[in-house]
């Protein structure tokens, strides 16, 4: 459904307690100065970070700049990263802070037209319909929820982060994220919108 869910990075997030994420060796190589490893990390994580920034800010052009800034900042501080922890959580945190700084003093969360949010899948009609329904659900959620609620739902369900990973990426506590998600669901139900 979402590109992040099928990426190696997303699969690595599911069992962080039992094995290092699949990108761990790439992180180690990039920390040692390997440009090819750094390029591969960007290839793996560019789409999820870009999608996150677009969904949160509603600014396609700015999202490209923010995504690029996110990776520049990440590689400057890569030596601080524990390779045995999922890199995507740290990247989401950097992307969030970069977006907030970028839009400081401006309206931060803007709704995008649905045709901009679509992924342009060329597959069978059924798959295209599914993508359209998913995009419509996210667009409806965007209209009903405030920015923090929407962000928590997107990270938790759109990017398939765990509750703890969502909390870490947003700077919230786990109970705080659970509360945001609960309130978001209640608001969606009250607005007669179905989400999950």
UniProtKB/TrEMBL annotation:
NCBIfam families: sigma70-ECF. Keywords: DNA-binding, Sigma factor, Transcription, Transcription regulation. Belongs to the sigma-70 factor family. ECF subfamily. This is Sigma-70 family RNA polymerase sigma factor. The lineage of its organism: Bacteria, Pseudomonadati, Verrucomicrobiota, Opitutia, Opitutales. Residues 1-21 are annotated as: Disordered. The keyword Transcription regulation applies. The keyword Nuclease does not apply. Residues 41-107 form the RNA polymerase sigma-70 region domain. It comes from Actomonas aquatica. InterPro entries: RNA_pol_sigma-70-like, RNA_pol_sigma-70_dom, RNA_pol_sigma70_r2, RNA_pol_sigma70_r4_t2, RNA_pol_sigma_r2, RNA_pol_sigma_r3/r4-like, WH-like_DNA-bd_sf.
């Amino acid at each position: 459904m979402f590109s992040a869910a099928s990426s190696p990075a997303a699969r690595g997030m599911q069992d962080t307690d039992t094995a290092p994420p699949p990108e761990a060796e790439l992180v180690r190589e990039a920390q040692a100065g390997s440009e090819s490893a750094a390029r591969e990390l960007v290839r793996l994580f560019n789409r999820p970070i870009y999608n996150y920034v677009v969904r949160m800010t509603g600014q396609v052009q700015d999202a490209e700049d923010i995504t690029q800034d996110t990776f520049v900042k990440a590689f400057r501080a890569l030596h601080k990263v524990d390779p045995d922890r999922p890199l995507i959580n740290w990247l989401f945190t950097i992307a969030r802070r970069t977006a907030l700084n970028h839009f400081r003093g401006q309206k931060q969360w803007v709704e995008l037209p649905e045709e901009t949010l679509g992924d342009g899948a060329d597959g069978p009609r059924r798959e295209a319909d599914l993508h359209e329904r998913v995009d419509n659900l996210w667009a409806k959620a965007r209209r009903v929820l405030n920015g923090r609620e929407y962000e928590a739902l997107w990270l938790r369900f759109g990017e398939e982060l765990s509750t703890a990973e969502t909390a870490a990426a947003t700077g919230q506590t786990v109970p705080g994220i659970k509360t945001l998600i609960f309130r978001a669901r209640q608001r969606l139900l009250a607005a007669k919108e179905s989400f999950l």
